Amino acid sequence: RCSVAMLDIPFSVFSALLGSLGVLCVALVGFWCHHWQGGFSLHGGAQTFNWHPLLMVTGLVVLYGAAALVYRFPSTWSGPKLPWKLLHGSLALGAFILTVLGLGAITHFHNSHGTLNMYSLHSWMGLGTVLLFSCQWAAGFGAFLLPWAPAWLRQFYKPIHVFFGSAILMLSSASCVSGINEKLFFSVKNGTTVYKLLPAEAMLANTLGILILLFAVLVVGALARPSWKRPDSDSLDSRQVL
């Protein structure tokens, strides 16, 4: 009982800690790309590639996780729902835009170097996650934001939307971690700092991968926690627009 009570922290405190973890993930991937991978550019070289991990971690993991937790804030549990729907949808749309830009960066890099696209498990997993994310956003927009969506459709689709929200976040984190590992095998391979000797770059990148997984697990845990869920209502206030 004591251990359970210790874990019973307010959602505001949890969200602040989770937000700090998300910022740390973005900062670490930015530092990795700047310090060891040569920084960022748009000219098709290795620096163009570096936009890919930065945008994917920022959009597909951190910003997407923030969108998933909008309805866990107690301030969203009463009053008009439309502003919170718009915030949730906008954060998810922002995550999607960053993800598309990240895909554009890696495609531009591959095409500039004559490298085939979609040849690795990381590529397949990542593209599958993005396609699933696209369907999730479009279906959520149609079911929850369009004013003529019937109540029965929203009630039917809501648990599906929640399930795939968590599934997409876990797939996103898995895609990012597999991409980090793939990049390390390509970049940490010279005779003095091979990957198996765990040089500083590998230490940082491996730590980044663990933190990304931790972020995703904490978000999914928060979504599953009963005391942090928005109370259900049998009324039709899910269509409130005022």
TrEMBL record:
Job of this protein: Transmembrane reductase that uses ascorbate as an electron donor in the cytoplasm and transfers electrons across membranes to reduce iron cations Fe(3+) into Fe(2+) in the lumen of the late endosome and lysosome. Reduced iron can then be extruded from the late endosome and lysosome to the cytoplasm by divalent metal-specific transporters. It is therefore most probably involved in endosomal and lysosomal cellular iron homeostasis.
The cofactor required is:
heme b
- Single annotated GO MF: transmembrane ascorbate ferrireductase activity
Taxonomy, superkingdom: Eukaryota
Q: What class of enzyme is it?
A: translocase
* Transmembrane among keywords: yes
Q: Which GO terms describe its cellular component?
A: late endosome membrane; lysosomal membrane
Query: What's the protein called, per UniProt?
Result: Lysosomal membrane ascorbate-dependent ferrireductase CYB561A3
Q: Which UniProt keywords apply?
A: Electron transport, Endosome, Glycoprotein, Heme, Iron, Lysosome, Membrane, Metal-binding, Oxidoreductase, Translocase, Transmembrane, Transmembrane helix, Transport
Q: Which PANTHER family match?
A: CYTOCHROME B561-RELATED, LYSOSOMAL MEMBRANE ASCORBATE-DEPENDENT FERRIREDUCTASE CYB561A3
Q: Does the keyword Secreted apply?
A: no
Q: Where in the cell is it found?
A: Late endosome membrane; Lysosome membrane
Please give the catalytic activity noted in the UniProt record. Fe(3+)(out) + L-ascorbate(in) = monodehydro-L-ascorbate radical(in) + Fe(2+)(out) + H(+)
Please give the subunit comment from the record.
Answer: Homodimer.
The record's InterPro entries line, in alphabetical order, gives:
CYB561/CYBRD1-like (IPR043205), Cyt_b561/ferric_Rdtase_TM (IPR006593)
Kindly give the PROSITE patterns that the UniProt entry links to this protein. Answer: CYTOCHROME_B561 (PS50939)
Q: What is its EC number?
A: 7.2.1.3
Q: Where is the Cytochrome b561 domain?
A: 17-224
Q: Which organism is it from?
A: Serilophus lunatus (silver-breasted broadbill)
What is the topology of this protein in the membrane according to its UniProt annotation?
Multi-pass membrane protein
